[in-house]
C-alpha cells in the first residue's frame, strides 16, 4: 500500500520527518509505520492523539497503510466535545505515544502505543492490497460553531487529488523541505503539512511551537517552504524590522504559503517590502481540502486566494443557490460552490446535514462569500453566516473593511460584523484592538478612513474597543464569541 507514499519503499535514506531533535528517514518511517499498521488489522477506525510529534505522523501513516480511517483528536478538546467525537466516530483503537495519559472519554478504547524504536528494525512489506480510492482515509471534525462538531469523511482520492494538484500549482518536488508549526489535528498541518511532503518524497521540519526564531533557523539551513496561518505571518511582519536574519531567511525561501483564514493585506505588503518575497494564499475547508491557490508561477495578488486547482470546479451563485454569477464584477458577491474529487463523501451519521450541504449537480455549498476577478482570481469576503452584511441595499463583505481598518496605524486587530438597524437593515460594526490602549483612534476617524479607501456605504457606523479578539487554535477570529450588549 505504498502508492500513497512511494518514497517509503524507494528512498530509504532520504530524510522524511523532523520534530525538534528527533527525526526519521523514509526507511525508518517505513519500518515504524509498517510495524504499527500490522497491529491495526481488524480495527474499524483509529483515533490518533494528535500532538505535534513524530508519533502522530507515524500513527497516521500507519493507519493509511492499514486502510483504517484515522480520526485526529485535538489534545486540548474539552470533555463534552471529546465524548461526542468518540461516541460519533466509534473508533476501536486509540494511537498515542507509549505512556500517554489519556482522558476518560478515550479510556474504553484499545490503546496501541506508537513505538518509534521499531524504526531501527526492518518493517513488514508495504505491498498489501490498496483500498479503493473512495474508501475513507480520515474522519476530521469541524469546529462546531453552530452545534456539535460534525465528522467529515474524507476519502483517499480527496487526499491524493489535493496533494497532486498542489504539486502542480506550487511546483512541489522531493527536493523541497517544508517548515511549519501548525497543529496536527487539522487538515492544514496534518494532510498538507505532513502528508504533502511525504507524498512528494520531500521532508518536513516541524517547529513544535511556532516562533520566528525557529523559522529563521530552519529557512536559514536548507528549508525551502513555509506554511503558516495569518497570526504567524503577523508575528513575522512585526519582527522583520529588527531582525535581519529573519529577513535573510525569508528572502531565500522558495514559497511562503498562508491559509486557514485571510491574511491581512497590510501584513502581505510589510513582508513583501522587507524580504522581496510575497506570501501566497490558498483556500480550502475540512470538507473540501484545497479548492484554489495562487500558483507558484502566477501573480501573488494580495487579498486573493488564486484560481481553482487542477480538477476542481468553482462557481459563485446568487442567494437562490443556483444562478451563477459571472466573473469580473468587483461588487458581485456570491456564495462559493465547489465540485471535484477533493470533496468529502458525507458527514458521519448525519444524512440530513450531508444532503443539505450539496446543491443539485453535486456542488458543495461552502457558506463562504466571494467575488471573482475577470481573470479567475477569487477574493473571499467572508462567511455567509457572519461576514456578509446587507446594509442600505448593498451586499458588503466584512473582509475588505477589516483590511482597510488594519491599514490605520492606530489599529492592531480588527473584526467587522453587522447588527440589526431599523433604517439600513444592518449597520456595520467594527471591533477594534487599538495599537495604543491609552489612545485609541476615534470612531469618526476610523469611519472616514474606511470611506476614503472603499466607499461611504462601507464605513462602520459603530466602533467597539476590545483588549483582544477571540480566536480559535488556528488563529481564526471567532465572531460568534464577540460580546453582545
UniProtKB/TrEMBL annotation:
A matching Pfam family: AMP-binding
Domain AMP-binding enzyme C-terminal: 400-476
Gene3D superfamilies, A to Z: 3.30.300.30, N-terminal domain of ligase-like
Matching InterPro entries: AMP-bd_C, AMP-bd_C_sf, AMP-binding_CS, AMP-dep_synth/lig_dom, ANL_N_sf
Coiled-coil stretches noted in the UniProt entry, renumbered to this chain: none
Single GO term (MF): medium-chain fatty acid-CoA ligase activity
Biological processes annotated in GO: fatty acid metabolic process
Family label: Belongs to the ATP-dependent AMP-binding enzyme family.
PANTHER family (UniProt xref): ACYL-COA SYNTHETASE, ACYL-COA SYNTHETASE FAMILY MEMBER 3
Name of the featured protein: Acyl-CoA synthetase
Amino acid at each position: 500500500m505504498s502508492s500513497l507514499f512511494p518514497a517509503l519503499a524507494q528512498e530509504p535514506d532520504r530524510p522524511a520527518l523532523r520534530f525538534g531533535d528527533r527525526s526519521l528517514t523514509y526507511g525508518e518511517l517505513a519500518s515504524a509505520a509498517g510495524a504499527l499498521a500490522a497491529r491495526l488489522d481488524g480495527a474499524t477506525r483509529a483515533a490518533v492523539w494528535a500532538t505535534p510529534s513524530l508519533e502522530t505522523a507515524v500513527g497516521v501513516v500507519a493507519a493509511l497503510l492499514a486502510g483504517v480511517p484515522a480520526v485526529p483528536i485535538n489534545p486540548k478538546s474539552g470533555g463534552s466535545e471529546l465524548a461526542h467525537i468518540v461516541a460519533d466516530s466509534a473508533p476501536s483503537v486509540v494511537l498515542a505515544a507509549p505512556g500517554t495519559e489519556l482522558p476518560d472519554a478515550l479510556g474504553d478504547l484499545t490503546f496501541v502505543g506508537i513505538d518509534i524504536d521499531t524504526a531501527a528494525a526492518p518493517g513488514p512489506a508495504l505491498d498489501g492490497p490498496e483500498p479503493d480510492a473512495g474508501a475513507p482515509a480520515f474522519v476530521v471534525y469541524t469546529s462546531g460553531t453552530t452545534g456539535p462538531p460534525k465528522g467529515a469523511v474524507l476519502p483517499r482520492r480527496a487526499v491524493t487529488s489535493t496533494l497532486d494538484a498542489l504539486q502542480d500549482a506550487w511546483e512541489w518536488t522531493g527536493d523541497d523541505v517544508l517548515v511549519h508549526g501548525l497543529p496536527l489535528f487539522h487538515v492544514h498541518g496534518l494532510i498538507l503539512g505532513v502528508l504533502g511532503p511525504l507524498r512528494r518524497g520531500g521532508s518536513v521540519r516541524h517547529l513544535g511551537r511556532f516562533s520566528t526564531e525557529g523559522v529563521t533557523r530552519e529557512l536559514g539551513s536548507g528549508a525551502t517552504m513555509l506554511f503558516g496561518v495569518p497570526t504567524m505571518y503577523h508575528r513575522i511582519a512585526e519582527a522583520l524590522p529588527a531582525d535581519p536574519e529573519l529577513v535573510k531567511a525569508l528572502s531565500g525561501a522558495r514559497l511562503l504559503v498562508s491559509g486557514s483564514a485571510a491574511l491581512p493585506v497590510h501584513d502581505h505588503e510589510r513582508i513583501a517590502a522587507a524580504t522581496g518575497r510575497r506570501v501566497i494564499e490558498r483556500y480550502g475547508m475540512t470538507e473540501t481540502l484545497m479548492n484554489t491557490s495562487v500558483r507558484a508561477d502566477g501573480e501573488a495578488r494580495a487579498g486573493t486566494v488564486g484560481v481553482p486547482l487542477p480538477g476542481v470546479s468553482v462557481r459563485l451563485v446568487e442567494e437562490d443557490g443556483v444562478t451563477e454569477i459571472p466573473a469580473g464584477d468587483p461588487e458581485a458577491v456570491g456564495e462559493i460552490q465547489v465540485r471535484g474529487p477533493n470533496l468529502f463523501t458525507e458527514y458521519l451519521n448525519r444524512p440530513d446535514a450531508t444532503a443539505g450541504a450539496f446543491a443539485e449537480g453535486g456542488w458543495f455549498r461552502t457558506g463562504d462569500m466571494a467575488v471573482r476577478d475577470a481573470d479567475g482570481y477569487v477574493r473571499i469576503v467572508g462567511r455567509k453566516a457572519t461576514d456578509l452584511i446587507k446594509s442600505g441595499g448593498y451586499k458588503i463583505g466584512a473582509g475588505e473593511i477589516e483590511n482597510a481598518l488594519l491599514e490605520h496605524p492606530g489599529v492592531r486587530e480588527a473584526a467587522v460584523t453587522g447588527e440589526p438597524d431599523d433604517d439600513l437593515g444592518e449597520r456595520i460594526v467594527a471591533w477594534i484592538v487599538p495599537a495604543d490602549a491609552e489612545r485609541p483612534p476615534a470612531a469618526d476617524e476610523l469611519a472616514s478612513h474606511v470611506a476614503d479607501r472603499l466607499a461611504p456605504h462601507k464605513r462602520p457606523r459603530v466602533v467597539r474597543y476590545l483588549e483582544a479578539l477571540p480566536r480559535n487554535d488556528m488563529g481564526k477570529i471567532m465572531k460568534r464569541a464577540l460580546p453582545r450588549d
